[in-house]
Design goal:
This protein is of the alpha+beta class. The chain contains three helices and six strands, in the order H-H-E-E-E-H-E-E-E.
Length: 122
């Protein structure tokens, strides 16, 4: 199972996240916006490899964007996502950056962005 599916499934199964966004957790690009929402995408990482070839351990990095109409709601969503990721059992996730706040004029929405290092096996 792709780790993106694991991440999404984990987030929409978390009561704290779903209380805020329902199932509005997306990977890649969003074409229509209903706020609040979570958007995440693969942004880098490494694979476990050595002289014997590539191993099964992967360490991708994902960027998470938490959108909401109000700044406080974006902040609450960001904290809920970070807490949910820390409690995963099918992968290990660790935030590697502090949230950075933006205001999206075209969407009239607040966005908090942070990166997460995810460890999983294939």
């Amino acid at each position: 199972m792709p780790v993106e599916k694991d991440l999404r499934d984990h987030l929409i199964a978390d009561a704290g996240v779903t209380a805020l966004v329902g199932t509005r957790v997306y990977t890649g690009r969003v074409t229509s916006y209903t706020f609040p929402l979570v958007l995440f995408r693969h942004s880098g990482g490494t694979n476990d490899s050595g002289l014997g070839g590539e191993g099964s351990l992967r360490n991708p990095i994902f960027q998470f964007d938490c959108f909401a109409k109000k700044a406080i709601d974006a902040s609450l969503l960001c904290e809920a996502v970070r807490a949910a990721l820390g409690g995963a059992s099918t992968f290990r996730a660790q935030a590697i950056s502090a949230p950075v706040a933006f205001y999206e004029d075209d969407q009239q929405a607040h966005r908090l962005v942070f990166e997460v290092s995810v460890w999983h096996t294939v």
